Structure formats: C-alpha cells, structure tokens
Amino acid sequence: MKRIYLDHAATTCLDSRVKAAMEPFWRKNFGNASSIHKEGCDARNALSLSRKAVASLISASPDEIIFTNGGTESDNLAIFGVANQYKKGRIIASKIEHHAVLNPCEELEKQGFDVTYLNVDRSGIVDLRELKNSLRKDTILISIMYANNEIGAIQPIREIAKIIREFRKQNPNPAFFPFFHTDAVQAAGYLDLNVQRLGVDLMSVNASKIYGPKGIGFLYVRRGVKISPLIFGGGQERGLRPGTENVAGIAGLSKALEISREEQPKESKRLVVLRDYLAGNILEKIPGSVLNGHPTLRLPNNVNVTISSVEGESLVLYLDAQGIACSTGSACTSSSLEPSHVITALGKSEEDAHCSVRFTLGRETQRKDIDYLLEILPEIVEKLRKVSAIT
Questions:
Q1: Which of 4, 60, 114, 374 has CB atoms 3.0–4.6 Å from 90's, for a disulfide?
Q2: Mean of the pLDDT values across residues 66-87?
Q3: Span 16-259: which CATH code?
Q4: Residue limits of the Aminotransferase class V domain (predicted)?
C-alpha cells in the first residue's frame, strides 16, 4: 500500500540535498569544534560558515545565533533565559502557544512570576487591544508564536512589535524590555523570517520542520538582549548553550533553511491551491464539518477541521489503515487524552476539540493524494458516525 504523508507539521523527511551537506561531518570532518588541532579547526570553520549562513538568511548577525537541539530547547532558553536574567517581572503569552512556551510559563508562575495569557478570537488571532492593555512597566517578556502548529493561524507579528516599540518609548528603562519572542518553528518553511522586518528580539526555529535533521535548531537573540543559560559546562555558544556542537546537524540546518528560503515563494503558492482544494471539498462533502482557524491568514499547508460526531483519534487510525498519515493536533501531546487547548481557546467545546483532525501538506503532496483522501474520507466518517450512534 502506498503511504500518503499529511503530517508535515509534526516532522518532515530529510531532504537529500541536506543529507549531502551533512555527509562530510560524520566521518571525514568529524573533529570537535573546540579542539585546536587541524580536525578541530576544520569543524570550527564549518560551524562558523553555517552560523554566518543562518544569520544571513534571517538578516541577523552571526553572534546573534545560538544553536540548540531544537524548537523546545530554543523556546525554553528564551523564556527561562529572560526570566532568570531579571529574576522577577511579568510575562505575556497567548493561550494557543505550544507547550514548549506554556509549560515554562506555568513553571515560572510557581516561582512567583506574573503571567498573563492572552485570548484569541474565533479564528485564532491574538487580540491586539488586549495585548496593549496588558502591558505594564514590569513586563519583561512577550511570547507570541508566529504561526500556530495546530490550526496554522498566522499572528500579526509586525503589528505586535510596533505596539511593543511604542510602549518602550513611553516607558523607557535601562534594560529596554519588554523583549519580544516568537516561536517560528512552524512558520520557518513558509513565512518571512527577516528579524529586522518582523521586529522581534528572540526567535525559535527547528530544522526538523523544514526538511532538516531532527535534534537541531537555533534561537536568535538580538544583540543587547541578555539571557541566562539553562545548562552549564563548556563555553560553547557564548556560554549560553554549552556542549560539543553538533556540526553535522548545524550544517544540515543551514542547508535546509537555505533551501526553504529559495523555494518558499513557489512552494507556498502551490500548497495554498492544494490546501484550499482539500478544505473546500471536506466542507462540501462532509456535513457537520467546520474549518478551524482563519480561512486565509493561515499556513499554506494547514487544514484543521472539526468533524462532528467523529472522534479524532479514531479517524486518524482508520485513515492510517488506508495509508494516510495525519494527526489530531500537536505530535508532542498526541498521547494525552486532554482536549486540544488550541481548539478550546477558539471558543469551541471539548467535544469539538476531540472531533478535530489536522492535515498538513508538504513538498511531496500531489493533487492525486488529496483526491484519494477525499475519496475515502466520507466513507470512513459515515462508518464512524454509525458506530457512534450505536454506542
């Protein structure tokens, strides 16, 4: 049976071009970048070139790039890094952030920090008036994700940055906070990552969402923003992320980001057509189906729908048996029986959250793959609804 992979928000396959860029660092140039011999110097030079390339691709300086093991660590380093640096203050995040942001915020609440969780509207967009009204002089950090991992909603990052800049002018302080962090893990392959245009102070990116290797990512930290490390050891990554650098992974991340930047305009346009074709046909062919998230301000590859009277996990398993991989939401919480905090934040019921499923398209997705899904999906839904009615 041919497999059709429609879960690219969870992870992506390794691009062959990325693999080729990584190959030299597994056996030939395997040195430790901290060593002073030739092998170490070769590794350090490769590390430097990758850092410069990543920085250039997001319009940053090389010394503003901190390599991590992925999006979760980058988010944690941003949240705890700022909090531990300033010891007290207020933090603002949206209610639909990834748990890599929400869980650190909850932990900081236990430590005495004041955390405000912003509402979103029914399409998943942050209320800018609420954000503006939530700002206080003791606010040290605002963390709003660029694009949501479950519903694909794209947040007005530039507008948020403008609100923060205006607040800073009206409430000057030596530290120049509040700082603005965005989780750009899902956005990286599809949206503009130019940190100068976005106006962010910290930004998290993960290679495995852009056809790069797993276990590598980076945190952009604007020059002048002070954060504290989470772990201690050697002096790597300016002491903010000690440990022997994963040179092969970093080279892969650099190449994956380069490819995604080059192909993004054409690929995003292609995916929007497929996305709208899939969403429109689901809503037309399956009664009781509703699109979650904004109809247009969403990632080009994301279709998240609630299908009434159909348990999402069951639908995922039935589709898997027919060769289609999809999900009910974030892969990081797929083992949890709790309803999606993202769907309930839209004002939907827990039942609606349990009846939601996410399809995320990718570079290999073709029209025939969508047609196959649309052919079998109504039959599976009808079958599951009959079972539900019986029970």
A1: 114
A2: 97
A3: 3.40.640.10
A4: 4-373
